[in-house]
Each structure stands twice: as C-alpha cells, then as structure tokens.
Amino acid sequence: MTKIKSLADLKKMKSDLQSQISIRQKSENPEGRTLIRIGMGTSGIASGAKQVMEFLMDELEKRNVDAIVTQVGDMGYSYADPTVEVTVPGKDPLVFGDVTIKKADDIIEKYIKNGELLDGIIPVNYETIDKK
Amino acid sequence: MKELSLHVLDVIQNSVSANAANIHLIIHENSSAETLTIIIEDDGKGMAPEVLGKVTDPFFTSRTTRKVGLGIPLFKQNAEISGGSFKITSQLGKGTRVKAVFGLSHFDRPPLGDIAGVVMLMVSSNLHINFFYQHKIDQKMYEFNTPEIKEVLEDLPLNDPAVIRHLKEMINENLKDLR
After folding, report:
1. Beta strands A94-96 and B22-30: pairing type?
2. What does the pLDDT look like over B120-171, one tens digit per residue?
3. Structural domain spans, chain A
4. CATH of A32-131, one of 3.30.470.20, 3.40.50.620, 3.40.30.10, 4.10.480.10
5. Does the beta carbon of B124 lie under 8 angstroms from any beta carbon of chain A?
6. Model confidence over A49-95: pLDDT tens digits?
7. In the CATH hierarchy, which fold is given to the domain comprising B4-178?
8. Per-residue pLDDT band at B66 (split at 50, 70, 90)
9. Which residues is B28 bridged to in the sheet?
C-alpha cells in the first residue's frame, strides 16, 4: 500500500476508504453495535489505557466485530484502572476493571462474542430509585 | 507518565471536559535553545483566578468522584525535573493555556512517545471538536488540523478504524521528515 503523506494523497485514497466503510456499514444496523468506552483520566492513562484502547480498536476491526470504541474521562474506579465499559446491544452496560491486553482479548472473545462473564467486573448500578 | 504524549492526552482531556470547541496543540523542539516546548490551548470555559491558583496542588480537583487530581502536578513535575518550566494561564469564559518547557536533551526528560496516536485518539473520540496540531523541529514545521481533513474526507467518519489508521500513518510520515 502506498503511504499517505499529504492531503492530496488522502483525497486519492478516499474512494478506497469509502468502499471499505460502506461494506462495514451495510453489514450493520446502528443499534446492533457494541459500544466500548475506555476511562482515560490521569490514572487510566498512567496504567495503560491508551494501549488497551488501541488494541481494542485494531482487533475489533481485524476480527470483524461491529463496535464503536471511544474514550471518556475519569470513571471514578481508579483503583481498578484501566477500566473499560462494554455495552452489548440489549444488555446492561458492564464495567471491567484492571484491563490488560490479555483481558481486552478475553472481553472480545468471551464476553462480546459469546456472552461469557469474566473476572474483575466492577459492580455498577445504572438504575436509579425513581426509575424503578 | 512514561511519555510526554501521555501528559498531552491527559491535559487535552481537561480541555474536552471544559467544553472546548477548538483545541490547539503546539510542540516545538528547539535544539539551539535546548528546549522542547508543549503548548495546549483551548477555548473552553476557563477557570477563575482562585481555581487557577490551586490546579498545581495535587489535592485539588474539580472532579467530584475523588479528592485528588494529579494530572497537572505530574506534568509540572516532569517539566521541572528536566530543567524546564511550567505555566498555566486561564480566563473564565475564554479558555485555558498550558505551557510546559522541557530540557530537550536533559537526562530526566521523558521521551515524546506516540504523539500521532494521541492526536488521533482525541480526534476520533471527540468528533465535534476542532483540533489544530502543529509540530516544529527547529525550522521545519508540520501542521495537522481537523477542519482541513474533514473538508477532504467530506462524509467519511473520522472515527472509522481504517481512517484513523491512515491519518496516524500520515502524521508519522510527516514527523519523520522533520527529523
């Protein structure tokens, strides 16, 4: 693949990129996407959240898992950073603590693909009393 | 932090929380002055003078989840141990500017690290914010800004993995040329 260096190169690559993206978009319905949010406060960054996030982005694409990976600020669980919140469509969000590359791999293979639960889930309740 | 780019990520996170619409990142490596300067400037909500006086205090944070905030103090510490300086200025309602100067070849200066990765991570996670990144090494300069990129890519999403990969590569290729 030729390397992109300038905006002109990027323009040339555009149609290529467009076709890759449209293939991806055809196979999906927006509600069917898994949402992954990574806690990136100071403690998250210091404990390796950036590496975990890059791993998740790369691997989800390679393994054809339809997901959006994004980052958020401090989630408040610094003792367990890096923390990753995964929302599989139709399920409640789950927050995983102490996520290493190995664990991120388990999250993709075991939790997202097979629905198996893993160790290190932080008990979080998203429901409020008045909602009940 | 082991790398300066991680401090940049951390400080930009503050700008995002301050609801900035435009964020400028300027990195300048100046070998004649022996300095590496990092400037992060935003047009977010800014801070009042009494808050500004406390941000370098580790036991101050605007967050409500916890009582310590180490991002700015750690950045400052790293600048100072490498023979540099640290300055943060802010105006309520106007924005904030963080300037950290490091000794370029000082033994205690952490490496810059994966700055292209950090830029793309912030760009892809905050599509509504305009990022302006300028990297200068002595007289040579490279500029990357999202309004320009968005104009070229039009409707292609900047948070698509393939787009991120290409843009990261583009930044890295250009940075290589500056050396």
Report:
1. unpaired
2. 989 988 889 999 999 999 999 999 999 988 888 887 888 888 888 889 989 9
3. 32-131
4. 3.40.30.10
5. yes
6. 999 999 998 898 888 888 888 888 888 888 888 999 999 888 888 99
7. Heat Shock Protein 90 (3.30.565)
8. low
9. B37, B136
- Residue ranges per structural domain of chain B: 4-178
Which chain A residue's Cα is nearest to B65?
A76
Q: Got the DSSP string for B124-160?
A: HH-TTSEEEEEEEETTEEEEEEHHHHHHHHTTS-TTS
CB contacts of B74 in chain A (<8 Å) are: 42
CA distance A89 to A114: 13
Q: Are B75 and B39 contacting, i.e. CB atoms less than 8 angstroms apart?
A: no
- Chain B residue nearest residue A24, CA to CA: B160
Give the closest residue to B102 by CA, choosing from B113, B93, B110, B94.
B110
Q: Collapsing DSSP states into helix, strand and coil, what is residue B97?
A: strand
Interface mutation vs chain A, best among B4, B17, B128, B153, most A CBs within 10 Å: B153
pTM: predicted TM-score of the whole model, two decimal places: 0.84
With an 8 Å Cβ cutoff, are B170 and A10 in contact? yes
Q: Check CB contact of A50 with chain B, cutoff 8 Å.
A: yes
**What pLDDT, on the 0 to 100 scale, is given for residue B97?**
93
Q: What are the beta bridge partners of residue B130?
A: B22
